[in-house]
Design goal:
The protein has about 400 residues and is an alpha+beta fold. It folds into two domains: about 5-170, no CATH class; about 175-390, 2-Layer Sandwich (Heat Shock Protein 90), CATH 3.30.565. The protein is about 65% helix and about 10% strand. The protein has helices spanning about 5, 10-30, 45-60, 65-80, 85-100, 105-130, 135-145, 145-215, 220-250, 265-275, 295-315, 330-335, 360-370; strands at about 285-290, 320-330, 335-345, 375-380, 385-390.
Length: about 400
């Protein structure tokens, strides 16, 4: 037996069982309720030694059940030879029970089978030795002492293992549910961040550009025009913010406009971008050549937001020239949707609005959720044009 097991204090249940068995055995001894005469001329007081050893073996029922079983088997064998105390036998049944219940899995499988084999052998030997039917009672008693508690422990252990497996499965399910919840919350937060950026960034950029122009140009008419654009973008930005907040609070009524924009609103989007740039050298063109069947809502929303963010970046960073928005579909209007926004690349002479790069990240996230491809960078000879190009598959659903 490992030394560390001996150093561990026995559990309270084992101490109570051992103490109860010891006191019960002493009471039976002093009342003279013992078995027949001891065999081989051994003194009957050895039954008290067996009782004490069995009570000590009870202290190992949880810490070292197999060691307790070996000690208990030796003690019960000597007890039978020295006259038998019922308390010793009863404690032995508990030790067999504990060895199956708390022992290793291999012992839990072998002990009951061993008890069955020993019961059969004891019964057979008793019949051969006595040649009387009463020998069956001896085999039955041996089975009650050994096989019965062993198989009882097997049933309890199986029930305990099933309960433990159910508990672990419940914990695993709860953990998976928590991970799914966190993933869903993260995905929803990312979605809200993209929507908030795409809805407000364009209006705030126009406000920043025109407020900078109004501060730098000392002309009443130019300042008045700039203030008009600032007010218009402020009102539109507030309206879109209220619509988003209403959607989050589930307060959007049936008669209110839909919170999800569609590609039918691209004309208004291009017009707002055109009004945000006071420089006459800028021009905006929309070429919608989609055709074919209607687009899924996630694809339409992604395309709208990509155009919106690209126009915002053009207003903030593009050089004077033409800003072109093109929407096309391959396969005679049945293939994937291609969104292309091109603007002049060069020095921007007017006031600039600061940017943090979140718009490009949001566009890449939207395209990735649909399984498409996005490219953004300079094209044409000498890199004179900045192009944003997105390929959006039509037959796929958005991944959340």
């Amino acid at each position: 037996m490992p030394v560390r097991l001996l150093r561990q204090p026995p559990d309270r249940e084992a101490m109570l069982i051992g103490a109860a068995g010891l006191l019960g055995g002493l009471l039976l001894w002093f009342l003279g309720l013992t078995g027949e005469k001891a065999w081989f001329g051994l003194p009957k007081w050895l039954a008290l030694v067996d009782l004490v050893v069995m009570a000590g073996a009870e202290l190992l029922r949880r810490r070292a059940p197999l060691a307790g079983l070996v000690i208990g088997t030796c003690a019960v064998t000597l007890d039978i030879i020295t006259g038998t105390l019922v308390a010793t036998i009863v404690m032995y049944t508990d030790i067999v029970y504990a060895a199956v219940l708390y022992g290793p899995p291999a012992a839990a499988r072998r002990i009951p089978r061993t008890c069955e084999i020993l019961t059969a052998l004891v019964t057979l030997l008793a019949l051969i030795a006595t040649r009387k039917p009463e020998a069956l009672l001896l085999g039955t008693g041996f089975g009650v002492i050994t096989a019965a508690p062993a198989w009882t422990a097997v049933g309890v252990r199986r029930h305990r293992d099933r309960a433990e497996a159910a508990r672990l499965e419940a914990e695993r399910t709860a953990l998976l549910a928590e991970l799914d919840r966190r993933e869903a919350v993260g995905a929803e937060r990312a979605r809200m961040a993209r929507e908030l950026h795409d809805m407000v960034a364009g209006h705030l950029s126009a406000i920043a550009i025109h407020s900078s122009a109004a501060l730098s140009i000392d002309e009443p008419e130019a300042s008045r025009q700039a203030l008009g654009v600032i007010r218009e973008n402020s009102v539109r930005g507030l309206a879109e913010m209220r619509r988003l907040i209403g959607l989050l609070r589930e307060e959007v009524g049936a008669d209110e406009p839909a919170a999800t924009p569609t590609l039918d609103g691209l004309d208004a989007l291009v017009s707002r971008a055109r009004s945000s740039v006071a420089d006459d050298r800028f021009s905006f063109a929309l070429r919608d050549e989609r055709g074919g069947a209607a687009l899924p809502v996630p694809v339409e929303l992604a395309a709208y937001r990509i155009v919106q963010e690209s126009l915002t970046n053009a207003v903030k960073h593009a050089a004077p020239g033409e800003v072109t928005v093109e929407l096309t579909r391959a396969g005679e209007g049945a293939g994937p949707l291609t969104v292309r926004v091109a603007s002049a690349l060069g020095d921007h002479s007017g006031p600039r609005a600061p940017g943090a790069g979140a718009g490009l990240v949001g566009m890449r996230e939207r395209v990735a959720l649909l399984g498409g491809e996005l490219t953004a960078g300079p094209v044409a000879d000498g890199g004179t044009v900045w192009e944003v190009r997105a390929e959006l598959p039509v037959g796929c659903e958005e991944k959340v």
